[in-house]
Structures are given as C-alpha cells and as structure tokens.
Fold:
Amino acid sequence: MTGVTGANARAPDTWLFDFDGTLVDSVALILDSFRHATRTVLGLVPPDDVLMAGVGTPLREQMGALAPTRVDELVAVYREHNARRHGDLLRPYPGVDAMLAGLRRRGHALGIVTSKMRDAVELGMQHVPLGRFDVVVTCEDTDRHKPDPAPVLHALAALAAAPARAVYVGDAPYDLRAGRGAGVMTAAAMWGTAFAPAVLRAERPDRELANPEEALRW
Structure:
C-alpha cells in the first residue's frame, strides 16, 4: 500500500467505489458478453485486450470503438446475453463484504460510481448482495462520464461530502482519472484483473490496495 502525505494522509470518511472489477468480479461475464455480441453482430471476435480496453467507460462508447456503425445492435445483443449470464459468471470478491461492513461500522458514507446502467447494477446486486449504499451513480445520472469527473462530483453533491475527505476506489485508469479530476483521493483496487498493475500505477493513485481488507487499515 503506497503512502500519502499532507491532507491526503487523513483517512477518508466518504468512500466511493466503482462496481465492475472493484466490488464484484465481473471480468469473465464482461468478456463472455463481448465475445457473444461481436461474434453475433460482426461475425468475428476481437482479441481480449481490445475488448477490455474501454472497460470502465459506458458500454455504448466501448461498442463505438469496436464498430461505430453497429453500436445499437452490439449493445442490445450484449445486454441480453449479459443479463442471462449473470447467475453463471458474476462472482463476489473475497473480502469485499468484510470491507464494506467495517466501513459501515465506522459510520462512513458509502457510494457506487459506475458507468453501468442502473438496471444492470441492480441485477448484479441481486446475484452478489452488497448491502445498502448511500448513493449509486450510474451512466444515466450525468451527461459526461468517466474519465470525466462529473459522476464523482455528482456523488459528492448527493452526499454533501467534501472532496478532501473522500476517496474513489477503482480498478481502471478511467476511475483514477475521474477521482483525481474531482479532487478526491484515489485508491487503485489491485485485486481487479481487467488492467495490469503497471497501468494503474501509471495513474499515480494515492493508495494501492492489494486486497479489500487494506481499506480498513488506511
């Protein structure tokens, strides 16, 4: 876990989390859905690194990068398949339940800031229950999306939280850029597997959390 100095050395009292790859292990589900959608609509399956490159940004943006003229078809096929496969492929991360319970016991405000649609988040939490959050910000809530800071700022406003006492925890470079742009502390969820550790370290997060339990030792 990397150290921080000055104001950022204080433990946050508002914790914002990305969803996919941070609170739930969804990499297998995402890849399976991308492979199915591209195979069905485009008749080919790009390499995994191409499919995963935009994870953390809205699905329509990711599909636009793959095939700008087939976005609607790709999104529709992806979402239908993804919803059907949640029960088979979405998994909890060891330690996330204990982390969230510990933060709640300390009276911290908890939020989710994700580029997913709200119905997809709700479906995910049906399969991997995570308890109550004080705010859930999805791609429908802001006009601009990660890596723009708008979603993080939206969550802070909803909680009346001070950026200097808040942290955004995520497994993607887009999360860390959004958090930094919003003026909050940033923590890299190194237990996520969508991006290599070097990619996250290049964003210079305030903290690297090797596992969820490390959040309780801030």
About this structure: Residues 71-89 form the longest helix (19 residues).
